[in-house]
Task: inverse folding
């Protein structure tokens, strides 16, 4: 700890508990770090319970159980029960793989509030290809069971160039499955998605066409289904207000206990992200170097520092600034005021050029331990 | 969508109304979201328990806060709550 004291720190509201990096799926846009295979250790049940207790005491109330695939943790019902007793609103963010009706009932009994099931596409062939695992029919069964047992059903579909043409069919599928919420998440290009960007980033025309269809559907189902549309920031001219501001709202705990201001932050250099094995959540939130790093506005360079929009978007995303410009203090290059804004157009052009290549010339890199080790070998 | 006067009002089974000690206020929790409530909104929603109609909620709150003329404000707020699916009447 650096002994920093800042009296203007707001308490965490959202806790993302990444219980494990283990996952039977191999989605090539996975937000886990490329080198996840290097982090084999996982927090124990008691460690997680302590983390949940401490964060709740500070004011965290929304809790996401994520991963990897959180269902691979045998202690999930015990953690859900503990979370419910503490008064969290708990969300299970799952691929559905390994889910049974018995488990759905067990988790309901333990106090789970909602289940978010991801589906990769509207057709079995494409879903199973993208997931790298035969899983389409089972996912639909899980979605039905989630509804049957009275959970709010949230369907999440990550959108990219391979499935964006299926937008009308994806919407029809959500309606047929009776989703209460549909999250249409345009791929954010970090981790594995960054590595596969040329093959995943749709063209501007594809985005605009899909967005028109999604907006019309949103109006049609108003009152029955809520749509969360995660915008594709490469086609915006202002950056997203990433994490609602660094260290203001969100706390992510990685499987090995490393505490992160956002789930990509372990890729940023020199942050020395603290581990819950060494510090309390309160020490981490208030005093750690990592959580104070980009709090406030003093760290900003130009054009952010004198920008009248800085309190709206906080300079955008630090991880994106680092990935695309090599300097995490820079303005997010998505911003049209950024002197590095041309890197976005280069990425778009490069992706467009790759659209004409065959899968043999440039294959998707699927997220698995073998590829993780290959990509992180120096 | 408007409130049907003679039917009781339910709080949504897909949302949760909860007191937050850290924030010193009531909140509504739902998938990936939270709404912070002011005191009067919370007092109204706490009475949406499937047993009371609009008129009963109004009279109970007028009695509790020793006042009159709350009908319009409460009706307007419940209209908003209905549109947001926090409450329903089926």
Result:
């Amino acid at each position: 700890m650096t002994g920093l004291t800042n009296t203007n720190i707001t308490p965490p509201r959202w806790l993302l508990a990444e219980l494990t990096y283990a996952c039977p799926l191999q989605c090539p846009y996975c937000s886990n770090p490329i080198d996840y295979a290097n982090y084999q250790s996982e927090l124990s049940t008691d460690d997680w319970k302590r983390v949940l207790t401490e964060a709740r005491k500070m004011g965290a109330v929304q809790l996401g159980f994520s991963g990897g695939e959180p269902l691979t943790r045998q202690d999930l019902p015990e953690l859900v029960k503990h979370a419910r007793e503490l008064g969290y609103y708990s969300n299970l963010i799952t691929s559905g793989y390994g889910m049974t009706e018995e488990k759905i009932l067990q988790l309901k009994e333990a106090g789970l509030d909602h289940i978010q099931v991801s589906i990769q596409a509207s057709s079995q062939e494409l879903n199973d290809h993208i997931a790298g695992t035969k899983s389409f029919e089972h996912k639909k069964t899980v979605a039905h069971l989630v509804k049957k047992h009275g959970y709010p059903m949230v369907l999440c579909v990550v959108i990219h160039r391979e499935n964006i043409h299926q937008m009308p069919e994806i919407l029809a599928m959500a309606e047929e499955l009776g989703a209460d919420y549909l999250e249409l998440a345009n791929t954010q290009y970090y981790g594995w998605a960054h590595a596969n960007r040329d093959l995943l980033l749709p063209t501007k025309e594809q985005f605009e066409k899909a967005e028109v269809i999604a907006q019309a559907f949103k109006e049609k189902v108003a009152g029955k289904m809520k749509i969360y549309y995660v915008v594709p920031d490469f086609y915006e001219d202002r950056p997203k207000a990433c994490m609602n501001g660094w260290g203001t709202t969100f706390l992510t705990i990685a499987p090995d206990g490393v505490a992160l201001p956002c789930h990509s932050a372990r890729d940023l250099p020199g942050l020395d992200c603290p581990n819950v094995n060494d510090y309390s959540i309160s020490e981490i939130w208030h005093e750690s170097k990592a959580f104070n790093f980009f709090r406030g506005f003093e760290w900003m360079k130009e054009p952010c520092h004198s920008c009248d929009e800085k309190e709206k978007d906080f300079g955008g995303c630090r991880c994106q600034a680092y990935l695309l410009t090599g300097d995490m203090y820079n303005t997010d290059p998505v911003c049209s005021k950024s002197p590095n804004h041309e890197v976005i157009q280069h990425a778009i052009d490069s992706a467009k050029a790759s659209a004409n290549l065959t899968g043999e010339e440039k294959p998707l890199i699927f997220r698995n331990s073998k590829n993780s080790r290959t990509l992180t070998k120096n | 969508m408007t409130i049907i006067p003679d039917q009781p009002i339910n709080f949504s089974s897909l949302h949760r109304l909860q007191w937050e000690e850290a924030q010193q206020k009531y909140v509504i929790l739902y998938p990936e979201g939270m709404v912070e409530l002011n005191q009067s909104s919370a007092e109204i929603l706490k009475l949406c328990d499937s047993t009371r109609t609009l008129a009963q909620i109004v009279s109970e709150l007028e009695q509790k806060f020793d006042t009159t003329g709350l009908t319009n404000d409460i009706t307007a707020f419940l209209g908003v709550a209905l549109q947001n699916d926090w409450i329903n009447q089926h």
Notes: The first helix of chain B runs from residue 39 to 46. Residues 10-85 of chain B form a domain with the Arc Repressor Mutant, subunit A fold (CATH 1.10.10.1150). Chain B touches chain A at residues 1, 13-14, 16, 18, 20, 22-23, 27, 29-34, 83, 85 (CB under 8 Å). Chain B is about 35% helix and 20% strand.
